[in-house]
Amino acid sequence: MSSLKACTASSSVLRSGAGARASGRRVSCIVTRAAEPKQGEASTITPPPSNEKPTVVREFTSHGARIIESDARLVGPEDQPDLFEGENMETLGKVMERFFLPGLIVLGLICGGIAARSYNDEADVFIAPPTSPDADIVIIPAGALQSTPTQAQAPSVN
């Protein structure tokens, strides 16, 4: 019966304001009901505590879209505790503020040392430095630069 009263009340308002029909807008009746989660869908509306007023949900269509309004409190990602808040992150921020540049320099030295040490590993050929500006390029195979290992005589057992 209450939805019938709401429909008749809204139609009397529409009759008094005749501009709504003249503008070509389609108006439908808005019915309020208690919130109930749909079957098979996760609901983002939390159930109200027992001491508060019941949750009201309004469903209507506007310009072909289905609109659902509720006065329940929504739970979202902003309600979750932030990982980067607190004393631990303050300490990390101060350490990074003080030691970022020295740490970057040390990291550069370590990476440079590794690169210099492994620069000629597994090289097949080398280029000899030119003796004059008009000299030809001399390519030396890697095997020619390696010295042949000398084997020492084993001590004799007397």
Q: Can you characterise this structure?
A:
The termini are far apart. The chain has a domain at 86-144. A 3-stranded antiparallel β-sheet has the order 1-2-3. It has a two-stranded antiparallel ribbon with strand order 4-5. The chain contains 4 helices and 5 strands, in the order ααβββαββα. The protein has helices spanning 2-16, 19-22, 87-117, 142-145; strands spanning 31-34, 56-62, 65-70, 125-128, 138-141. It is an alpha+beta fold. Residues 11-22 have low confidence and may be disordered.
Short description:
This protein is an alpha+beta fold. The protein is built from 4 helices and 5 strands; from the N terminus they run ααβββαββα.
Largest sheet: 3 strands, antiparallel
Query: What characteristic shape results from the CA principal axes?
Result: elongated
Name the assembly state.
single chain
Mean pLDDT: 75
Total strand segments: 5
Beta-strand residue fraction: 15-25%
pLDDT under 50 segments (min length 5)?
11-22
**Total helical elements:** 4
- Which strand order does the major sheet show? 1-2-3
Alpha carbon gyration radius: 41 Å
Helix- and strand-based class?
Answer: alpha+beta
List SSEs in N-to-C order.
Answer: HHEEEHEEH
> Span from first to last CA?
122 Å
The helicity comes to 25-40%
